[in-house]
Amino acid sequence: MSKIKDKRIRNLFLGLLFDAIGMASYLAPGIGDMLDVFWAPAAGWLMTRMYKGKIGQAAGIVTFIEEIIPGLDVIPTFTIMWIYTYLLSGKKAKKIIDI
């Protein structure tokens, strides 16, 4: 398997895991919102590490905002970013198709 495909799969699984962690705050009503105070900066930082460059920084900010605002935890920002990066982004999608 090529390095790019390995990275795609790794980022997909990590994204699904991180989205599940973010949504887990609904399992503990009251306490979950308090945990979001710690998870929001961590999620933003993780997003910038998974996706480099300005797009990763923008996604990190969006992820932080989505996690810190109560009620928005249902938005799977890591999965949306994966779809954008590997399926919708013309430059990267062309690279993957060429391989």
Describe this structure in words.
It is a single chain. It contains five helices and no strands. Helix content is 79%, strand content 0%. The model has no long low-confidence stretch (mean pLDDT 85). By secondary structure, the protein is an all-alpha fold. The radius of gyration is 14 Å and the shape is elongated.
> Oligomeric form of this entry?
single chain
Give, in order, the helices and strands: HHHHH
Question: Helix share of residues?
Answer: over 70%
What structural class is derived from the secondary structure elements? mainly alpha
General form: elongated
Number of helical segments with 4 or more residues: 5
What is the arithmetic mean of pLDDT? 85
Tell me the radius of gyration: 14 Å
Number of strands: 0
Give the DSSP E fraction (strand runs of 2 or more residues): under 5%
Tell me the span between the first and last alpha carbons.
Answer: 11 Å
The low-confidence runs, each spanning 5 or more residues with pLDDT under 50, are none
Largest sheet: none
List the helices and strands and how they pair.
Layout: H1 3-23, H2 31-50, H3 53-68, H4 77-88, H5 90-98
Helix pairs in contact: 1-4, 2-3, 4-5
